[in-house]
Amino acid sequence: MASLTIENYVKAIFQLCQASGGNSAATGQIAAALGVLPGTVTSMLKTLADVALASYTPYEGVSLTPAGRALALRVLRRHRLIEQFLVTTLDMPWDEVHEEAEHMEHAVSDRLIDRIDAYLNYPASDPHGDPIPKSDGTLVVTADKPLASCIVGEKFRVTRVRDQSPEFLRSLTDLGLEIGACGQVVAADATGQITLRLGEATAELARTAADQILVE
Amino acid sequence: MASLTIENYVKAIFQLCQASGGNSAATGQIAAALGVLPGTVTSMLKTLADVALASYTPYEGVSLTPAGRALALRVLRRHRLIEQFLVTTLDMPWDEVHEEAEHMEHAVSDRLIDRIDAYLNYPASDPHGDPIPKSDGTLVVTADKPLASCIVGEKFRVTRVRDQSPEFLRSLTDLGLEIGACGQVVAADATGQITLRLGEATAELARTAADQILVE
DNA sequence: GGCAGAAGTTCGGAAAGACGAATTTGCATC
DNA sequence: GATGCAAATTCGTCTTTCCGAACTTCTGCC
């Protein structure tokens, strides 16, 4: 069985590949994502290659093998179902569940996860809008784009949030930008400030923040 | 923060003390409980003494300090609330939850545990009848005795099960000896076989099994 | 085409936690 | 009091995962 550490590396690699749109991740990015030094990552990448979870070429990056991708999806499935479960069942705020799931994802059995899945009636996504991988390893591709890429006048509906830090999520709650919220881009000035209309209210948002919000 | 390993050692020491009625545990018992070799335990006992979780005298045994007892109770509280939660909310069978909780107890935050406690309306005991420590570190003492100590003719109600292995628990389910089940000791022969009446039915039980069942 | 500087790799070493063999201690028995 | 066995301890070693410093490779810029 894969150790907790290996699960975290594989998950990080998978998510970095997704984020970059490519299919390989850089040592430095992985180090930053996991909070370790680059040298540590290099040696772990060799380990991952040894156990056939990743293909690693020095100075070029890593990509996951099918086995690595499957493991990453299992971890992600556990993580996201746990998040959804905590919000649905225990009414936890959406800004607390990520951290909790980060630990629990390595501790729950697949049997329990499948039970949670059934209990929640097979949800398609977690509280942050991230799609939940199926038990057969399938992951639906979402059709969304950053709010920052919307032109002035464009209407949108919030479908997903990338940055899942508690502070950022709380600020979204304060602005009324929950998952499913609808609005319209009113203005975007050169300094990167974006103005939104949300029903009656108006909200101001930095471009960097709007980049973390996915809409359709 | 205490490592997963330290939490397991402290929990094992606490439970061995409880089981023996004394307040110290032997190296060999701890090794057997945790599935490691005695030498490993000896070195860990020194570590526990170093961080003031236990008092250790070579060749005599260990006992927990107040800090060690507090940690053990926190772990036990997490374990038992998780068990109760899995049974109540997800309808998991009582023979599966121990193993699951064994892993999860190290992964959930105290914040989440308190939320589960409130959600379950502050249950007094877990699915096996073990009392749940309160968040202030209090643990109620149960007034129960082994079914094996009942004399012929004595009536009883099952309050708690010591052996929490799936096989044993399933055999109890088959016999109708769930928590709360009432019955009467009908016979006890010299070979250690005990006969019970449970409502309409009759059940045969080995003395070793009856020793694992606590009643009042 | 050459050369900083950034990114990546190598290597020695440390901490946690475990094993296994050799040794020591304690205790019951004679 | 001597002895022998079971239990406990000691010690060297292994694996995993990390750090940090020294070194190598890559890349963008002149």
Given as residue ranges, the uncertain stretches of chain A (5+ residues, pLDDT < 50) are none
Sketch the major β-sheet of chain A: 6 strands, antiparallel
**Average pLDDT, all residues of chain A:** 94
Order of helices and strands of chain A: HHHEEHHHEEHEEEHE
Quickly count the helices of chain A.
8
Helix-strand makeup class of chain A? alpha+beta
Rg over CA atoms of chain A:
19 Å
- What is the beta-strand fraction of chain A? 15-25%
Number of separate strands of chain A: 8
C-alpha end-to-end distance of chain A: 39 Å
Biggest protein-protein contact in the assembly: A-B, 18 and 18 residues
Strands across the major sheet of chain A, in which order?
Answer: 3-8-4-5-6-7
Classify the oligomer. Answer: homodimer
Gross geometry of chain A: globular
Tell me roughly what share of residues is in helical segments of chain A: 40-55%
Walk me through what this model shows:
2 copies of one chain form a homodimer. The first copy, chain A, is 44% helix and 18% strand. The first copy, chain A, has 216 residues and is α+β, with helices and mostly antiparallel strands. Chain A has a 6-stranded antiparallel sheet with strand order 3-8-4-5-6-7. The first copy, chain A, has a two-stranded antiparallel sheet with strand order 1-2. In chain A, helix 2 (27-34) crosses helix 3 (38-50). The N and C termini of chain A lie far apart (39 Å). The A-B interface holds A 86, 89-90, 92, 96, 99-100, 103-104, 106-109, 111-112, 115-116, 119 and B 86, 89-90, 92, 96, 99-100, 103-104, 106-109, 111-112, 115-116, 119. Chain A binds a DNA duplex (30 and 30 nucleotides) through residues 3, 5, 26-28, 36-44, 47, 58-59.
